[in-house]
């Protein structure tokens, strides 16, 4: 792949799973860190996320776990909980993942992530969550 | 204990040390993660916090240390600094704990926790802290 | 569920996905923290892991992400990478998950987890990993 | 050094690299944790930062790395990105440091720090960053 | 206090709660970072730990929480679990603190700390822990 | 740049600052995660580290701060403290950086990093450190 092809694959991958919120993050980097923006697209999406070895639903479960565990990544959780819904994780599955996070990361981090999920679900009219 | 008894013990334990703020967190989970709410009450308070091996003042010192160290847990610190006051830790002791946190977790995390304490103390008319 | 039923469900759940390594951790707690051992079984496995809202393969992906992000949890990663294999994640999928972890948690934590995976895969005769 | 001399050296060191924002943090501790304020000045600046073994530009690069990696330290990053500019790091160098942080800490933490930098640079009329 | 008085107070404070293991850490810094060694004694023990606002038992509970939450601090946990015993925390109280840590930091970090406690208790002939 | 050129630039960059230890890490990934090895070289070194906006000495100070703050990254610290020496940071500067890390990350993480430095310095005959 050339550099341009990697970037194009990144854009396509990002658009296939996103709803515009990752794109807005990328755009907001334009006047400060355009090379970081380009790396997120070309490398993060074009070289890593696009690989077929894990489907997007798997990747979003994994990312949900990582962002909850890292802590302090609420803005990224907001984007990725939206993406999780886009690629087929149900609200009840996301909430279940966060209950499991309580056992591995403790309740405080699990709660922080749950309140981000509540915001995202609320904006999409997905509250109350049933079956959770 | 039956499941109902565990839940009742959790509610009683939570009410005995709390001032309603933990309860409001629990309630706000109602439309998204009711099972997480139930686990916090039944397990966190009913099975763990209620154990007599450590008194509430000990538990709150411990939790103050953990939440400061984890980072990014300001909402939980706000609840737990309130609880710390409820169970007998003085403002000066809480501030002292956060000075010690500077040595073990660094000044940035200690400062984040101190500004949460300032908010809680201010709301309770406990500023300025004397003897700190 | 009674307390005994929760414990039994926990044991069954742990045995269904495990290969004895989680069990050995539980046993090694016997002379120091038997109640923590019981809580891991009754609560962690009996009340959380056993819930049908996520299948074990999903839970292990999530846990792989969390343990890699937390850092310093190599002993738990060793158990959980084994469990991941038991519930159907392939070596190539696990390695792929860790490449994605590099993008979200940085290369140092991803490398630490990868070397734990190398140990587990080696013990099971799964090296070299093909298709990764 | 006497205690008073340490404090004076701390004040001078802080003033030499700062623009008043660290001073405002110190002042805001006055009614809750004056001893923490004093330790930051006397010890943090007077005994540690003032040592000649590393120049301020080196110290700010190091601190930029630490605060980004810790996570949840956005208020401290805001102060220290300002200080970084004061001691001679250029906006392009700060942005470059945060791109490297993406490789070691992952993109989420790097993005959090980048958006703090965007705020600080914007307030100083340093956007767009050229050469980044 | 003069610098010499701070150092002396630090040595006395360290000796009063310690059993030689903190001292050995300090000594092992002698050929690489003697100033860090001096700061731990003069500042950490002489200026922070020696303050009467919290008794040593309180400080060790707090530190146990912080080190467990930080993760990757097993060598420091080993020293501080020893100190905790020295200042009056019982093995059962320490184990109880770590069960509470499971709720706030997750089981993996709680387990890491518990296995350090098992080592320290074993060396002191305190196993099995009764009443835990 | 083509993919091959990126990889070559990565190898050259890695060789220019390294002493073979990063290379050995890369090689040890060969039978488990060759694509992660390739990404570290092509992306980490070829696209990020090779950028001229920060000189290697700056990058190593930054990385020293990040790895110390992350915690649990002792294997990476060992490689990077060696690299820090290679690119011109003196033992006294590295030790000074770790003293500053005590103020921002707490003494436990600073100590962990200092003992890694002691190992690396010892292997290179650089102990005792003078002027630290």
Automatic annotation (TrEMBL), chains A, B, C, D, E, F:
Gene3D superfamilies: AhpD-like. Transmembrane segments: none annotated. It comes from the Bacteria. One of its GO terms (molecular function) is peroxiredoxin activity. Residues 34-118 form the Carboxymuconolactone decarboxylase-like domain. This is 4-carboxymuconolactone decarboxylase.
């Amino acid at each position: 792949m050339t550099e341009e092809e990697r970037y194009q694959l990144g854009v396509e991958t990002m658009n296939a799973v996103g709803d515009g919120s990752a794109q807005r993050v990328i755009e907001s980097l334009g006047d400060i860190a355009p090379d970081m923006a380009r790396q997120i697209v070309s490398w993060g999406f074009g070289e890593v996320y696009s690989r077929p070895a894990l489907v997007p639903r798997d990747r979003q479960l994994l990312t949900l776990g990582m962002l909850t565990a890292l802590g302090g990544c609420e803005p990224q959780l907001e984007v990725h909980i939206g993406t999780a819904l886009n690629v087929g994780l149900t609200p009840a599955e996301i909430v279940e993942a966060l209950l499991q996070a309580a056992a591995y990361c403790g309740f405080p981090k699990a709660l922080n992530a749950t309140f981000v999920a509540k915001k995202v679900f609320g904006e999409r009219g997905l509250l109350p969550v049933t079956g959770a």
